[in-house]
Design brief:
The complex is a heterodimer of chains A (about 375) and B (about 375). Chain A is built from 9 helices and 21 strands. With about 375 residues, chain A is α+β, with helices and mostly antiparallel strands. Chain B folds into 2 domains: about 5-230, P-loop containing nucleotide triphosphate hydrolases (Rossmann fold), CATH 3.40.50.300; about 235-355, Nucleic acid-binding proteins (OB fold (Dihydrolipoamide Acetyltransferase, E2P), Beta Barrel), CATH 2.40.50. Chain B is about 25% helix and about 35% strand. Chain B is built from 8 helices and 20 strands. In chain B, the strands form 4 sheets. Chain B has a 6-stranded mixed β-sheet with strand order 6-7-8-3-9-10, with helices on both faces. In chain B, strands 13-12-11-14-20 form a 5-stranded antiparallel β-sheet, with no helix packed on it. In chain B, a hairpin with a 2-residue loop joins strand 4 (about 55-60) and strand 5 (about 65). In chain B, helix 2 (about 90-100) packs across helix 3 and helix 2 packs parallel to helix 4 (about 135-150). The longest helix of chain B is centred in the middle third of the chain and has 18 residues, at about 165-185. Chain B is elongated. The chains are: A alpha+beta (about 375), B alpha+beta (about 375). The interface of A and B includes residues 171, 204, 314 and 316 of A.
Chain lengths: ~375, ~375
């Protein structure tokens, strides 16, 4: 059983509309049946408020929320057929972990043996077998979190709402559980919305990520799309590790064509990328002398070839990747290489930025103009 | 510029031994990262050097001269703590000058020192600001300036980037080595983040329960960890560990993993019959859809991208869970893959650890 969720122009005010806090602003999105969606943003961006409105812990000021075409915002939380793992929505202290998890199945009228089998499966998945007979008060934060997740995921519900579901787990366990939970969600066709401030978590689990900032949904797209076609400079710099390199640039004339130029503080050109003459769309979207911002991801810069030479400022090998900082005409540029780089700090290295790899944004509000040789939508 | 020597340093508290018999010598101007899980005495080590605690046994020498018993402020040691904490009621200038003011330095000399360090750290324009008016990056630099202003021969940094937001932590990780090299201070840097340790350390000293487990360059620690516990501390996702036995056939030494025999370097021949745990880094495993003779039959559990890499959790035929990790070159591929597939292993990166003791067994010829 699963469902589809629609948020239709949802607003949330705390306090009066004229003077209150506008926590969520005109938020619209549709979550497909069986889809896993992350709400991602820094603290105070409105992501948790959005989740709490869907759960029924907060009222909706304006707009509509529908689950399986049923308007839910006037229903009590228990009537929405939504399963939740929330930080504040804690385990029942007088029940063991096993009974806490089994309690979620009480409406399903299953045989005790059937329930036990279910709980044991869940416990194996989340590595909580050894603590099934313990009481919540004796558990660590990470164990409580997994018990709470088990209680939510074992239910049959139209929608699963998870609030920072793995924030308390130590990294090695988290890596394994991410994979197992994702597998479980996909296999059971569950519709999931989860909140996280951690883009790693969002990228690992979600089909699509809704990036929020200051109550506004900036973009909702697949992790790949957010990386390749960020809607604006905010999304572009927020997503990606290390963050995208961004420079102020201008469009210059280059023979008959165009060249995006980042000036050096000492005069001259620090970074320049020719717009291919066949990219007529891109050329049409730009004008000579236009000020804009040039973005290029650290993974998208080629080193070891190209005419431009740059001084290596640092070279940090991290086992599976190398992070370089180079001085490109007094501008620092971060580069990630998946093969070791022998040039050390103080040596020079050639680098190349291909026109297919650059992102251009408007200078004023940062809206995307082009991604590589394609126009932004 | 200085050489710091720890010679058989031990320290215990009522709760038990914290450090036992730690010896290490830093090179002149070297940055040594002190790395290890919590509770292994990393901070205690810094406190012993700073003179906040005294060792029970052993000696601490700076350029050959013992520091034990010497007053903290006479040691030539500068220290900055977690989060680079500042005095909130003092402007940046006073924060930076505080270690000098206590020494009764002339106002002109002090002023000159504060300005020269502030300029180098690019905070000379915010010296009159109170800490709350500084950006996080400026706070970090102010605290670093305070630790460096007295020109310490040894700089001790105790997990300075902990609890700092990810972006700033990353920026400082790139910038710190350059700042430190400007000052030519010998630096001991405590962290719990393996990437920070690899990025910042000329060498990394890995502390484990009971003492110093390994001190070596980042490359040696990652490629040639002394034991299985150290191997597990470096790398994300963590190294895959599989129990097996070294066998020898006509082609040389091999190990059996599920349904496949994997060739090992010829030097492993002398370990024939040894029960081992094989360590394979996720980046040395490639997932393919095609059946190949040298590939393991696997079942993909889930694809969970991590830091611009495609991380795949998969199961071997016997149910063992493993990770593979590859650069995300085609970011458009779906992350909903699961089901049967094949895995090939880059064998020259394989590590072998003694099954019981956990120490790495060397493939190099005797």
């Amino acid at each position: 059983m699963a469902g589809s969720l629609i948020l239709d122009h949802v607003d949330k005010f705390y306090g009066p509309k004229s003077a209150g806090i506008h926590a969520v602003k005109d938020f619209s999105m549709a979550v497909q049946d069986g889809e896993i969606v992350a709400l991602l943003g820094s603290s105070g961006c409105g992501k948790t408020t959005t989740l709490r409105m869907i759960a029924g812990f907060e009222t909706v000021t304006e707009g509509e929320m529908r689950l399986n075409e049923r308007r839910i915002q006037d229903l009590a939380p228990a009537k929405r057929n939504v399963a939740m793992a929330f930080e504040g929505y804690s385990l029942y202290p007088p029940l063991t972990v096993r009974d806490n998890i089994a309690f979620a199945l009480k409406g399903a009228r299953q045989q005790r043996s059937e329930v036990d089998k279910h709980v044991d499966e869940m416990a194996e998945l989340l590595e909580i077998g050894p603590i099934l007979d313990r009481y919540p008060v004796s558990l660590s934060g990470g164990q409580q979190q997994r018990a709470s997740l088990a209680r939510a995921l074992i239910r049959k519900a139209d929608l699963y709402l998870l609030d920072e579901p793995m924030s308390q787990l130590e990294p090695q366990l988290r890596a394994v559980l991410r994979g197992r939970i994702k597998n479980y969600l996909i296999h059971h066709g569950m519709t999931v919305m989860f909140v996280t401030h951690d883009q790693t978590e969002a990228n690992a689990l979600a089909d699509r990520i809704a990036v929020m900032e200051d109550g506004v949904l900036e973009q909702i797209a697949s992790p790949a799309e957010l990386k390749d076609r960020p809607a604006n400079l905010f999304v572009a710099s927020f997503m990606g590790e290390p963050p995208m390199n961004v420079y102020d640039a201008t469009v210059a004339q280059n023979g008959g064509g165009m060249r995006v130029v980042v000036p050096s503080p000492n005069g001259g050109e620090a970074i320049g990328v020719d717009i291919p003459s066949e990219s007529t769309d891109v050329q049409g979207a730009l004008s000579i002398g236009q000020k804009l911002r040039l973005g290029v991801r650290p993974q998208s810069i080629t080193i070891g070839q190209g005419e431009d030479q740059a001084l290596v400022l640092s070279n940090q090998w991290l086992g599976d990747q190398t992070h370089l900082v180079i001085d490109a005409g007094e501008h620092q540029m971060i580069i990630v290489s998946y093969t070791p780089v022998k040039e050390k700090a103080g040596e020079t290295i050639p680098f190349l930025i291909a026109p297919e790899k650059i992102h251009l944004f408007t200078f004023d509000n940062g809206d995307a103009i082009t991604h590589g040789t394609e126009l932004a939508k | 510029m200085a050489t710091l020597e720890l010679d058989g340093v031990s320290k215990s508290f009522k709760t038990g031994d914290v450090l036992s018999d730690v010896s290490l010598t830093t090179g002149d101007g070297e940055t040594v990262v002190i790395f290890g899980p919590s509770g292994t005495g990393k901070t205690v080590l810094l406190r012993l050097i700073a003179g906040i605690e005294e060792p029970d046994k052993g000696d601490i020498r700076l350029d050959g001269k013992s520091l034990v018993g010497m007053a903290s402020d006479a040691r030539g040691v500068g220290m900055a703590f977690q989060n680079f904490a500042l005095y909130p009621h003092m402007p940046a200038y006073d924060n930076i000058s505080s270690p000098l003011a206590a020494r009764g330095m002339s106002k002109e000399r002090l002023d000159e020192k504060v300005h020269s360090i502030a300029k180098l750290l690019k905070i000379d324009h915010v010296l009159t600001h109170m800490p709350k008016a500084l950006s996080n990056g400026q706070k970090q630099r102010t605290a670093l300036a305070r630790a460096l202003v007295a020109g310490p021969q040894v700089l001790l940094l105790d997990d300075p980037l902990r609890n700092v937001d990810a972006k700033l932590r990353y920026e400082m990780r790139l910038e710190l080595p350059r700042l430190l090299s400007e000052f030519k201070s010998t630096t001991l840097y405590v962290t719990q983040d393996y990437k920070e340790a690899m990025a910042l350390g000329n060498r990394i000293a890995v502390l484990a329960a009971g003492g110093l487990a390994q001190i070596a360059t980042p490359e040696d620690i990652y490629l040639r960890p002394a034991n299985v516990e150290i191997a597990k501390l470096f790398g994300e996702p963590t190294i895959n560990l599989l129990s097996t036995t070294i066998e020898t056939n006509s082609k040389g030494p091999t190990v059996r993993l599920a349904d496949l025999k994997i060739p090992l370097d010829a030097h492993y021949e002398r370990f024939q019959g040894r029960k081992v745990r094989i360590g394979i880094r996720p980046e040395d495993i490639a997932i393919t859809r095609e059946a190949r003779e040298d590939a393991l039959k696997i079942e993909v559990v889930a694809v969970t991208p991590l830091n611009e890499r495609v991380v795949t959790l998969f199961k071997l035929a016997d149910g063992t869970e493993c990770f593979a990790s590859a650069p995300d070159i085609q970011s458009s591929t779906t992350t909903r893959r699961h089901g049967a597939a094949y895995a090939t292993i880059k064998t020259d990166g394989i590590l072998a650890f003694d099954h019981n003791q956990g120490q790495r067994i060397e493939a190099t010829a005797e």
